[in-house]
Amino acid sequence: MSFQNPVFIPGPTNIPESLRKACDMPTIDHRSPLFGQILQPAREGVRAVLKSDQAEIFIFPSTGTGGWETALTNTLSAGDRVLAARNGMFSHRWIDMCQRHGLEVEVVQTPWGEGIPADRYEEILSADKEHRIKAVLATHNETATGVRSGIAAVRRALDNAGHPALLFVDGVSSIGSMDFRFDEWGVDVAVTGSQKGFMLPAGLAIVGFSAKAIEATRTGTLPRTFFDVHDMSKGYANNAYPYTPAVGLMNGLNEACKMLLSEGLETVFARHYRIAEGVRAAVKAWGLKLCAVSPDVYSDTVSAIRTPEGFNATDIVGHAASKYGVAFGVGLGEVAGKVFRIGHLGSLTDVMTLSGIATAEMCMADLGLNVKLGSGVAAAQEYYRSHTTTSVLKAA
Questions:
Q1: Cβ atoms 182, 49 nearer than 8 A
Q2: b/e string for 95-117 if b means 16 or more Cβ within 10 A?
């Protein structure tokens, strides 16, 4: 691999030089007042990125997986029932975590490539007259399939059913890159990590809790120590942590939030949409299809691209790495060998994306697929030439 080439995996993402420098800082005493000048602005910045006025923000030295565990262990008890759709590898892993913690999971099996069936959620929730379901899980952006689900629709399902269950949302590959509305959508716990939309190295689990979720922590009895939000809250009250924090990453998070908010969240989202549309134009020009079944579920952060029957899509990823020094994502789970993934989130531009599209074309041509060199690049160029950030914003 080459350190000079951008990566096109759906996380970790490319790190802007200013954020690398923010993480590369001298050691400070994390129990001194100086740390509070990093901690509290970072929490406020995350709250703004979530579009929330009230969310309680917790930042753990971990990854998105630790964020999932934080959501479950702080609010639920063994034997509690949760509702979840399995429509990709990451929703599958969250379900697996629930089961390992002794939770009873009602799984809605959903074809990989489709979004969460909110109508089916509503049926199940309406039938749950005793309110045994304590939490509803929703993966906003399924990174394995390039599928976005409607969280507003899931909230409507809960409201239409008159159900009090908590709403947990995996926003690991969406928050900071795609529109996310914590307050408006009535999210109770939102989970993300530092290595995707926040453009930082992996190492932080970033979690937002609603007041309702905080209240649930007073009755939840699943074991937690490292991920105990009450211990974290006590530390925050003194501008500190219950253990040693990842100070450099926290400083980077503070700067990442400033960068996103300075660009403007709507502009950030429009940029991701525009870059993604260029990739989708290239896929169409190649004569290939996305794993996502329809435009209403297309992800703006990752495209999972189906290759012809009988062709091992993983070969494209291996060839790109060995011959051209470029990283793409492999297919996972049920779509392993059937798709390769182009991540287009975080610190990325049209010009950078064109280099990834050109590399994918070369790989497919090298491996004998019927792809004309320049076809996808030209299609993306045409889109980028005629769609600026301003034009995308106006269209929205």
A1: no
A2: bebbeebebebbbbebebbbbbb
Give kind and range of the element (H or E) at residue 302.
strand 302-306
301-329 pLDDT, tens digit per residue, is 999 999 999 999 999 999 999 999 999 99
For range 199-204, the mean pLDDT: 98
* Helix intervals (H) in the chain: 17-23, 33-49, 64-75, 89-100, 118-127, 151-161, 211-216, 229-237, 247-263, 265-285, 314-319, 350-366, 375-386, 389-395
**Considering only CA atoms, which of 263, 258, 295, 257 is closest in space to residue 276?**
295
Would strands 81-86 and 104-109 be described as parallel, antiparallel, or unpaired? parallel
Pairwise CA distance, residues 165 & 136, whole Å: 6
β-bridge partners, 147:
142, 298
Q: Distances from the Cα of 371 to the Cαs of 94, 210, 326, 337, 366, in angstroms?
A: 37, 49, 19, 18, 10
- The residues pairing with 134 across neighbouring beta strands, listed in sequence order, are none
Euclidean distance between CA atoms 270 and 156, whole angstroms: 25
* DSSP states along 110-168: --BTB---HHHHHHHHHH-TT--EEEEEEESEETTTTEE--HHHHHHHHHHHT---EEE
User: CA of 94: how far to CAs of 115, 204, 274, in Å?
Assistant: 16, 18, 30
Q: Which of 104, 218, 213 is nearest to 166 (CA)?
A: 213
DSSP 40: H
Read off the pLDDT band of 396 (50, 70, 90).
Answer: low
Residue 144: closest CA among 173, 183, 179, 109: 173
Q: Please, what are the domains in the chain?
A: 17-262 (3.40.640.10), 264-395 (3.90.1150.10)
CA-closest candidate to residue 182, choices 138, 237, 245, 129: 138
Question: Do 102 and 132 form a contact (C-beta atoms < 8 A)?
Answer: no
pLDDT in tens, 94-142: 999 999 999 999 999 999 999 999 999 999 999 999 999 999 999 999 9
